[in-house]
Amino acid sequence: MKTRTSKAIGAAAGIAAMALSVPLAVTAYAQPAEPAEPEPTVEIPNPEGPGCDAFKEAVPNWEALSKLPVGQALQSIPEASTFHAAISGGLNPAVNVVPVLENGPYVVFAPTNEAFAALPPAQLDALKADPAALTDLDYYHVFLGILGPNDVKGQRPTQQGAEIKVTGTGGDITVNETAKVVCGGIQADNARIYLIDQVLDPANPPAAVTPTTTATSATETTEPAPIPAADAPIG
């Protein structure tokens, strides 16, 4: 009798142990995921100028240039291929200013291929053979800042040192009195590119702007009025 009771107790204990070893089923209710915040859409401003339709036809993905540094953006514009060669070692291996330009922000006036083709062949050959002259030319087409077509006007010092004069706004912009913007305000990651129809000459910059004083400086002193002598008549 004792043996049968012991077996019964052992069996019950075994069943209890097995029950404890089976994990309890837990019903979990997942919280609904919150919708992801949409990424803000950055609007790329339309470039302006009489040649912008041709530019957009040649570069149908022109808006993507806004994600490229200026060297790659210029390389992607067929009409700026000669200027890109001039700044990247293509005309002279000793002249590669792209790393400097990609540390912008810069406004870049890029002469079109037609503008370079209009140069006398001897002048272009001389530029190719003279690294200093080519570097001067490259930097004269660049000044510090990021300005769109309505804000680019003014006279500013270029990276070459001489000044550049920009007049007009929107789609009607002139540089140094004679060079016209074909299509301007093309957005790169660190620059605004303006295609122009002439190669600018750093040897013929506009007259430098001389700052003028329009108000008396606080540091200036004014001569006091003379004090009349004690015996001088009053009136």
Task: Estimate the mean pLDDT confidence.
Answer: 83
Question: Order of SSEs, N→C?
Answer: HHHHHEHHHEEEEEE
Overall geometry comes to: globular
Helix content: 25-40%
The assigned structural class equals alpha+beta
The level 1 CATH classification of the domain at 52-196 is: Mainly Beta
Number of strands: 7
Offer a few descriptive terms:
235 residues; single chain; FAS1 domain; disordered C terminus; seven-stranded mixed β-sheet; 7 strands; globular; alpha+beta
Short description:
By secondary structure, the chain is an alpha+beta fold.
Structure description:
With 235 residues, the chain is α+β, with helices and mostly antiparallel strands. It has a domain at 52-196: FAS1 domain. Helices cover 29% and strands 17% of the residues. It is built from 8 helices and 7 strands. A 7-stranded mixed β-sheet has the order 2-1-7-6-5-4-3. A hairpin with a 3-residue loop joins β5 (172-175) and β6 (179-187). The protein is globular.
List the SSEs and their pairings:
Elements (H helix, E strand, L loop, with lengths): L1 H20 L30 H7 L11 H6 L5 H8 L9 H4 L4 E6 L1 H5 L3 H9 L1 H10 L1 E3 L9 E4 L5 E7 L2 E4 L3 E9 L3 E6 L39
Parallel strand pairs: 1-7
Antiparallel strand pairs: 1-2, 3-4, 4-5, 5-6, 6-7
